[in-house]
Amino acid sequence: MRVIAIDGPAGAGKSTIARALAARLKLHYLDTGAMYRAVTCAAVQRQIPVDDRDLIAELAREVIVEVQDDGVFVDGEDVTAAIRTPEITAAVSAVAANSGVRAEMRAQQKAWAVERGGGVIEGRDIGSVVFPDAELKLYLTASPRTRAQRRVAEAGGDVDEIERAIAARDHYDSNRADSPLTTADGSVVVDTTGLSIDEVLAKIEALI
Fold it and tell me: What CATH number labels 32-116?
């Protein structure tokens, strides 16, 4: 398998860069964060409290999550837009910290890669936990202000409020017990602050 793992905090440009890199290398692309958002969306729709660890883990094992080129689906329902709402964004960290959910999602991510012979896979624990032997492990980051400004450009909102939310998410993800956000051994840190997409891609392609 040819796996390129891209990790990093929210707003660092992982999805944009991973998708573009996959296209250039003619590899498949997987946004693992969308998988956790999909489970969160399913929980909210079913009115299951996201802090009920057992029920959420059971839900993750039962629902069929599909992350495709044309959208994200849960049991065949298109949730592409729904998983990006503020309600899901506020709740996804609790679901992603659930060890039962992470075990199921990791198994699905590995199966996805095996089926496709690899791919460009992005998330928060891809290089450190899911694919520690990836061909290339990248950790994309950017200043909190830059990340907040990108979110505002994409979806609007107050930049100061979003920057505070990003800082809170960083702290939560970095301190969770299961697969915390971290720079994997052997990964290359790429700071995307002030760089264009093409400039970031050029840095990455020089490493391959």
Answer: 3.40.50.300
Task: Quote the pTM value.
Answer: 0.89
User: Using an 8 Å Cβ cutoff, are 139 and 7 in contact?
Assistant: yes
Give the contacts of 21 (CB within 8 A, at least 6 positions apart).
4, 6, 27, 120, 201, 204, 205
DSSP 66-115: EEETTEEEETTEE-TTGGGSHHHHHHHHHHHT-HHHHHHHHHHHHHHHHH
Which single residue is written with the structure tokens 């899911």? 130
- The CATH class, in words, for 1-28+118-208 is alpha beta
pLDDT in tens, 125-152: 999 999 999 999 999 999 999 999 988 8
Phi, psi of 180 (to 5 degrees): -65, 155
Do the Cβ atoms of 37 and 92 come closer than 8 Å? yes
What one-character-per-residue DSSP string does 26-77 give?
A: T--EEEHHHHHHHHHHHHHHTT--TT-HHHHHHHHHHS-EEEETTEEEETTE
